[in-house]
Amino acid sequence: MLGLRRARPDDVDRLLAWVNDPAVIATKWHTRAPITPAAHAHWFAARLADPETDIWILELSGRPVGQIRLQGPDDAVAIDVFVVPDARRCGLAKVAIMRALVAMRARRPAARRVIAEVRQENAPSRALFEALGFAATGADGERITLAANVPAGGTSMDPTNVAAVFAHPDDEVLGAGATLAGLAAAGARVRILLLASGLAARGPTDETEIGKLRAHAREAARRLGAESVEFGGFPDNAMDTVPLLDVVRRVESFMGDFPADTVFTHHGGDLNVDHRRTFEAVVTACRPLPGSAVRTILAAEVLSSSEWAPTPLGGFTPTEFVDVSDTIDRKIDAMSAYAGEVRTWPHPRSPEGIRNLASLRGQQAGFAAAEAFQTVRRRNFTHDQVGKLRHDR
User: Fold this and answer.
1) Residues 6+ apart with CB under 8 A from 227
2) Which residues form the domain of 170?
3) Are residues 261 and 385 in the same domain?
4) What is the DSSP string of 35-83?
5) Domain count for the chain
6) Is residue 154 part of a domain?
């Protein structure tokens, strides 16, 4: 989980080690010499005391992995970003920068313009800032200057609390595993609720077998970066025998403990009856009442159910595609935690089947790999509204 905290005096040695990293030294504009501890300590103390400087420490699951420095006058705040190599290419920096800019604007309402300078050859850094809305304003032989307005008001659409509510263990991986892994890596809190046992339809089972399957689900959740997984215990492939209100109340209890802004669930037209029942319960539990934190509900496709549904049930029609080129392997790895659920090719739930669907959805959206979703509901809140909802809870 991504954390963002203000730098403290005891971060002085950590930042010195980062700034003297050989790769960082190679990008310096004025000198390629390492900074001495004394010079750094003097500079760092001055920055902490400077009202025009914000230094943020990025933490991933409690481990410091980078820093963001915002420094300068309101009309030209310079931004400097560093992320350790093993935490790059997972979307962490983009989310952290947005949070840091919003926090700076709350502290400095007059701050209006942010300036970034990157080396001409540093294509990843340029792409990062352009994805955040920065535009090139100038260039010289070594550097490109990019600028953007500091975000204020507007809508807050980056997921912060993500709930994945599915019927059976492995549905969460098949439907949204790569997306959940990407969101968790970017700092979102991800929690999973699995409503049915997932075993009874295959014959008599005992608590030992159910316990093993739940252990597999916990391991899959760990591989995806989810905080936790809960279980509803409803009868497998027989959730239509349970009053819908009972299922709704279980989802409401889960959501009451975890005020998610984004919810992933099944498509309402899936072949599997438990999938359809889960969809009904989620849509009911997440109805847009005043004070509800839920902004977005997305229906996922689950291999060997969504594509096998007859047309009268209503076929899955994707409206959103998430680039999972960097996390598709994590999805397949998480699926392998379910040793008894993985099949051999050409079954849809084989590793090849999972990768083939990701390639197809990616092809449809211009990505190397994608997961597709159908929008069930989307509501836009302002930053102030989102903050009030979180405070009220």
Assistant:
1) 1, 189, 190, 191
2) 161-392
3) yes
4) PPHHHHHHHHHHHHH-TTEEEEEEEETTEEEEEEEEES-TTSEEEEEEE
5) 2
6) no
pTM, two decimals, is: 0.62
pLDDT in tens, 56-99: 999 877 789 999 999 999 999 999 999 998 888 777 788 888 88
Per-residue pLDDT of 130-171, as tens digits, reads 988 899 999 887 889 999 988 654 334 456 789 999 999 999
Last residue of a domain, one of 124, 149, 174: 149
**SS3 helix, strand, coil % of the chain, rounded to 5?**
40, 25, 35
Who has greater pLDDT, 61 or 338?
Answer: 338
Amino acid at 101: L
Of 102, 118, 149, which marks where a domain is finished?
A: 149
Backbone angles phi, psi at 195, to 5 degrees: -85, -35
48 or 342: whose pLDDT is higher?
Answer: 48
pLDDT exceeds 90 at position 214: yes
Query: Which of these ranges, 56-60, 213-217, 297-301, has the smallest mean pLDDT?
Result: 56-60
Domain identity same for 20 and 135: yes
Do the Cβ atoms of 66 and 87 come closer than 8 Å? Answer: yes
Could you tell me if 330 and 181 are in contact, meaning their C-beta atoms sit under 8 angstroms apart? yes
* CATH code, domain with 366: 3.40.50.10320
Going by their DSSP bridges, the two strands 370-378 and 320-323 should be labelled as: antiparallel
Distance between start and end Cα atoms, the chain: 20
Domain assignment present for residue 117? The answer is yes
Coil, helix or strand for 200?
Answer: helix
Decide: residue 357, CB within 10 A, 0-12 exposed, 13-18 middle, 19+ buried.
buried
Same domain, 182 and 134: no
Residue 155 lies in a domain: no
Q: What is the pLDDT of residue 114?
A: 95
